[in-house]
Specification:
heterotrimer; A mainly alpha (about 550); B alpha+beta (about 325); C mainly alpha (about 170); A: about 550 residues; mainly alpha; 16 helices; about 0% strand; globular; C: about 170 residues; Four Helix Bundle (Hemerythrin (Met), subunit A); about 75% helix
Chain lengths: ~550, ~325, ~170
């Protein structure tokens, strides 16, 4: 196996644009599907960002009237639903699709057609959700997107309190895309378990592959409860059922339990791939192997297992018994341990290394600080009595955005820059990338650091306006200003992707001098991925090739 | 510990925020505050140490320009180090857990002592109903409770119900929030040590006007509370034979108002909307949305959606004369 | 297929939890006492697991005719189960007045049993497709592993029925 840097000459005549589009629509190639997931997700990231901007403008001062309460309530529902299901999840699945077969030396995923089917189901889900804007026909006649919050608590979602179809669009779009998610998860598991190249035992897989395997397992266990709960909700709304009908003895709390049994593992589905990116990027840019590979795997699997037992920490204020509350405090604090260990392992990887501050590493460094902070505010929230004050306030909003934006999105940006040369064959502009980084990090901290304060000062979430004289005004103003910087950062990011795709320098197959299999093939990889099936002897096959005097397999 | 936290509480207490969770005046809020200082201390310490290590490693181990280009020593792991940084977080978690568990059991579900007041709180879209079964008082939106002397506590126990969707009762300076969920009764308690007005609002999204379901808790001296109770127990003052007010009463009782509202001692006994028997004893209307003035009342009755768009009270389509009359009647309900 | 089974199992677990939680909580209307234990139909469904196993074994030995025969028996047994469910429901709706709207018992019962019956239906359609292909001689020894995978789904459906049966007709009554 050799590492060559080759631009394949164009030997075929130019293909008309219609046929090119057709090829993309019918493709079953994991790389193309991965890219389609990613472009789809980026579009919805922008929609979600617009929804957030509308909310922040409305909240820039008390008693503002930029939008009506009906519209605002739709905004936070759509923002949450869009960002989680149609931005973050497709991004995660897109990267998994693209990278997993390449990193295990396989030719494609185990079930390419299922892969395509899953993508189109997810895509349909997103379109269905946004169709509600014109088709929702609710009581208020105000655009009629769902307005029940992204977790759609009963009995607000009952026919009585949500007439019209907006809630049904929420339910159906997630039901449909949920099937797509399960399909992708099945694919990932089958691929990782069955299609690794010769010599790649489970103990020699890159950490990214391990983490995506764990993520897929969680999807299988977590998405199904949401599907079941939504079936019950549809039975209530359409067949006159009483699952969540409190007037007939049904229970609103049961919905909460079922939703959060999904909802909590779901956030681990999002964050574990972020760990994966960071676990690949930090070693390469510190020029050292990841510290403690076996423990990293064990910690991840532990996080996966424990994550299905913590869900009711979202329900501390619901009136569970003291024993119930105490159990969930314990399980939530327990999950902090393997999570903290990972931070130490990343730190130890950097320790004694030679750190290169290129864009991927900058984003990963920011990730480390921000994920640390997010984890610590999470520990604060895990203490149930403290939670009785902080829950459903802007402190919680700040905490989870710290994780989702500060950790997950930053890691994703790092991943974009790291693998962009591989996927496109071109180098991105380092200057634009650094501009993106600084704009975005300033905006992020302006918004989400200061957002903790109104929470501490008693500001609940999901309110379309607030009272003056509670000490919240100045903080809300600062939070809104941060949005400008973040938007500018995103513009720099998108601009960089576009410009670099057309004008960037040729990247070659291994611009980072990295060690995993995807860097051994061309940039972009040919449809068949590898010319010959790779054979590996260690966790870093390319390190072995580049350092024949000191290969990894001597130490593993 | 508690003198320290009182000191910190005074330091942190910013009078400009009436809803600051770090300015407790009642035992549940205080227990939470004490615990939170402990948690913040530990998490703050962890942050300082780990962030410092991260910053140090980023700076110390950066690639220098003068570097010769070789790879650094590859270190794959270290059992001792990994054991150490596994055990330490486990110990910290155990300590935090025990401290937390103690406060949970201390705060939840104590038995009401003999001097306790019991209030039934019913959450509605988008207002609060308060009934004092022991004192035979029914009111809405503004809760009155007696101040509680720590030596002889007279706490108030709130039994929380909902008439429709989920709500949450959150007055930060008095206690952590507890949800009001239909078909799932909850209870909480407060024992405010200082008189005054304490603010909060609904903290569980309940529909369009969730943001305007404000909470006002008046903590009064025992004498003031007793006289408030006395006033609230009276039936409605009969409207004087002054033309406008009694005309207003006739309109009130013939248009659909009585289907939703109660005025004790009259045919009005609806329970969908707030009890209006002593409407003028309240400082605000529409659950804290506007001051209780004649002008605001008139605007409200004319079209509630101008003050609270999306609330559930319909506009009854009264003409100006009728509006004046009904307002005059309501203003007479002291 | 194991992953798919895990995902489907999770859906059923949630519905079973809901069913168990709501036992005895109906405010009015018929109670589970009105249920007749569907012994015959259960036996049919459970023995269809045996027959499909026989079918797969026959196919893996190259005995196409035995395969076709046992597969048909499996389908018939599954169909009997569905028909039995239909009759049971007809009785419940017309004679006992229990619909999905009646009360919590009705809602949880019909949803749980109905979702299972839906999975049986999907399974039967898949088996029927294989049967038709087999009738035209398109299914041979080499396909045995694939049919085995399909039979896993069918076994899963049977296991779910064992659990649902125990919860609804055992514990719930």
């Amino acid at each position: 196996m050799s590492i060559i840097s080759v631009n394949l000459p164009r030997t075929q005549p130019a293909i008309p644009i219609v046929d090119k589009l057709h090829q993309w629509v019918i493709t079953v190639d994991h790389k193309r599907l991965g890219l389609m997931y990613i472009f789809y997700a980026l579009s919805f990231l922008v929609f979600g960002g617009i929804e957030a901007t509308i909310m922040r403008i409305q909240l820039i001062r008390p008693h503002n009237d930029f939008v009506s309460p009906q519209v605002f309530n739709q905004m936070f529902t759509m923002h949450g639903t869009t960002m989680i299901f149609f931005a973050a999840m497709p991004l995660v699945f897109g990267f998994a699709n693209y990278l997993v077969p390449l990193m295990i030396g396989a030719r494609d995923m185990a079930f390419p057609r299922l892969n395509a089917f899953s993508f189109w189901l997810t895509a349909l889900g997103g379109i269905l959700l946004y169709f509600s804007v014109i088709g929702g026909y609710g009581l208020y006649g105000a655009g009629n997107a769902p307005d029940v919050g992204w977790f759609a608590y009963a009995p607000l979602t009952a026919r009585t309190f949500s007439p019209g179809h907006s809630t049904d669009f929420w339910t159906l779009s997630l039901l449909v895309s949920g099937f797509g998610s399960i399909g992708t998860a099945i694919n990932i598991i089958a691929t990782v378990l069955c299609m690794r190249c010769p010599g790649m035992t489970l103990g020699r897989m890159p950490l990214l592959v391990w983490l995506n395997l764990t993520m897929a397992g969680l999807v299988i266990l977590a998405v199904s409860p949401l599907t079941a709960a939504q079936i019950m909700l549809l039975v209530d709304r359409y067949l006159g059922g009483h699952f969540f009908d409190t007037q007939a003895g049904g229970s609103a709390v049961v919905w909460m339990h079922f939703f959060w049994v999904f909802g909590h593992p779901e956030v681990y589905v999002l964050v574990i791939p972020a760990f994966a990116f960071v676990s690949e990027i930090i070693p390469v840019f510190s020029r050292k192997a990841i510290f403690g590979y076996p423990v990293m795997v064990a910690a991840t699997v532990a996080i996966g297992f424990i994550s299905v037992s913590v869900w009711a920490h979202h329900m501390f204020t619901v009136g569970m018994t003291s024993f119930g509350n105490t159990f969930f405090v314990l399980s939530t604090m327990a999950i902090a341990v393997p999570t903290g260990i990972k931070i130490f392992n990343w730190l130890a990887t950097m320790w004694g290394g030679k750190i290169h501050f290129r864009a991927p590493m900058l984003f990963c460094l920011a990730f480390l600080f921000q994920f640390l902070t997010a984890g610590l505010t999470g520990i604060m929230l895990s203490s149930a009595p403290f939670n009785w004050q902080l829950s459903n306030s802007y402190f919680v909003v700040a905490h989870f955005h710290y994780v989702i934006v500060g950790a997950i999105l930053f890691a994703l940006f790092g991943a974009f820059y790291y693998w962009f040369p591989k996927a496109s064959g071109r180098m991105y502009s380092e200057r634009l990338a650094k501009l993106h980084f600084w704009l975005f990090i300033i905006g992020f901290h302006l918004t989400f650091d200061f957002m903790h304060v109104p929470g501490i000062l008693g500001m609940p979430r999901r309110i379309y306006t607030y009272e003056p004289g509670r000490g919240w005004d100045a903080w809300n103003l600062i939070v809104t200003i941060g949005v400008l910087f973040q938007a500018a950062g995103i513009l720099a990011f998108v601009g960089n992707l576009l410009w670099s795709y057309f004008q960037g320098k040729t990247a070659g197959s291994d611009p980072w001098d990295a060690w995993t299999l995807e860097w051994s093939t061309h940039s972009p990889p040919p449809e068949y991925n590898f010319e010959t099936v790779p054979v590996v002897k260690s966790r870093r096959p390319l390190w072995d090739i580049k350092h024949p005097e000191d290969p990894d397999w001597k130490y593993e | 510990m508690s003198t320290l936290s009182t000191a910190i509480s005074h330091l942190l207490h910013r009078p400009s925020s009436p809803t600051d969770i770090f300015a407790p005046v009642s035992t549940p809020a205080k227990s939470i505050f004490d615990l939170s200082l402990f948690v913040l201390g530990i998490t703050g310490g962890i942050f300082v140490i780990v962030a410092a290590l991260l910053a140090y490693s980023a700076i110390r181990f950066r690639k220098r320009k003068s570097d010769n280009g070789g790879e650094p020593a590859q270190v794959y792991g270290s059992l001792q180090v990994e054991l150490a940084w596994t055990l330490t977080p486990v110990l910290i978690s155990v300590v935090l857990f025990l401290a937390t568990a103690r406060v949970i059991f201390q705060t939840q579900h104590p038995t009401p002592p003999p001097g306790a007041i019991e209030v039934t709180v019913i959450g509605h879209q988008f207002w609060w109903e308060y009934r004092y079964p022991g004192l035979k008082v029914v009111t809405a939106n503004e809760l009155h409770v007696p101040v509680s002397d720590p030596a002889h506590p007279t706490p108030t126990f709130l039994n929380l119900y909902s008439a429709d969707t989920d709500h949450s009762w959150w007055v930060p300076r008095l206690a952590g929030k507890t949800d009001l969920i239909p078909n799932h009764p909850n209870s909480m308690w407060i024992d405010p040590h200082e008189t005054g007005l304490y603010l909060g609002q609904c903290a569980q999204y309940c529909g369009t006007q969730h943001a305007k379901m404000l909470l006002r808790v008046y903590v009064q001296s025992p004498e003031d509370f007793a006289s408030w109770v006395q006033e609230q127990r009276q039936t409605a003052q009969t409207a004087p034979s002054d033309g406008t007010a009694s005309e207003g009463r006739k309109i009130f009782e013939s248009v659909a108002c009585i289907n939703c509202h109660t005025v004790a001692g009259t045919p009005a006994n609806g329970r969908f909307g707030p009890d209006l028997t002593h409407l003028m004893s309240r400082e605000t209307i529409a659950s804290g949305v506007a001051l209780n003035t004649r002008e605001n009342l008139r605007r409200w009755i004319e079209n509630p959606n101008t003050l609270k768009p999306g609330c559930l009270m319909p506009s009854m389509g009264l003409n100006n004369q009728q509006l004046d009359a009904v307002t005059a009647y309501l203003v007479s309900l002291r | 297929m194991y992953c798919l089974i895990a995902a489907e199992a999770a859906i059923f677990v949630i519905l079973i939890v809901a069913y168990l939680f709501y036992i005895g909580k109906s405010l009015s209307g018929p109670t589970p006492a009105i249920l007749h234990v569907p012994v015959l139909f259960t036996v049919c469904l459970l023995s269809s697991s045996l027959t499909i196993h026989a079918a797969v074994k026959a196919l893996s030995r190259g005995n196409d005719r035995a395969f076709g025969f046992w597969l048909l028996v499996t389908i018939v047994l599954g169909a009997i189960f569905l028909v039995g469910t239909a009759f049971e429901w007809r009785h419940l709706i017309h004679d006992e007045g229990l619909t999905i709207q009646t009360n919590l018992f009705g809602t949880t019962y019909y949803t749980l049993v109905g979702l299972h019956a839906f999975h049986v239906t999907v399974g039967l359609l898949a088996l029927a497709a294989v049967s038709i292909f087999g009738f035209f001689g398109r299914v041979g020894k080499a396909d045995a592993p694939r049919v085995d995978v399909l039979s896993l789904y069918w076994h899963f459906v049977d296991v779910v029925w064992v659990v649902v049966f125990t919860v609804v007709y055992g514990i719930g009554r």
